[in-house]
Amino acid sequence: MSTSFYTKTSLKTTGKHTTFHGIRSRNGKWVAEIREPRKTSRIWLGTYPTAEMAAAAYDVAALALKGGDTTLNFPDFVGSYQVPESPEPALIRRAAGEAAESMKVFREREDGDRAVGGDRNDEFIDEEAIFDMPNLLVDMAGGMLVSPPRHMVVDDRPLGDSSDCDNLWSY
Length: 171
Fold this sequence. Notes:
Layout (H helix, E strand, L loop, with lengths): L22 E4 L2 E7 L6 E7 L2 H16 L22 H29 L9 H4 L2 H12 L27
Antiparallel strand pairs: 1-2, 2-3
Helix pairs in contact: 1-2
Protein name: Putative DNA-binding domain-containing protein
Family: Belongs to the AP2/ERF transcription factor family. ERF subfamily.
GO molecular function, one term: DNA-binding transcription factor activity
């Protein structure tokens, strides 16, 4: 599962993140909250050091309250979230905190992988060496210089008759 994290924090004048749902910036930290369906009250999900952690907390709460058809910040992580069975605010807060911690661990692991080995897809493969390209092209050019095989006429047809042609070199 591959997810690229947003390194720049682009904020509107309201403090809301332009990419993630349900989070906003407050005093340099990120807070997450969600409105309960058919109510005016909100469930406070917590304050987190990164936008990704707050977005993961929002995702778990959205799944618990709105179901699987809701818009998520990280849809690839749905299988790793521990969604509470009942929509009680205390259970949702606990699950949101766990999701935020798992996002923190995932991000640290991804950052560590980048620092150690870089991206795994940037390995150089010398295709010319694998296929022996210089010699392959020379061999192909040499093959074009080969004259056609001699054809021995075995039947009584004249050479100009191409009505029943089954050989490329009979022309």
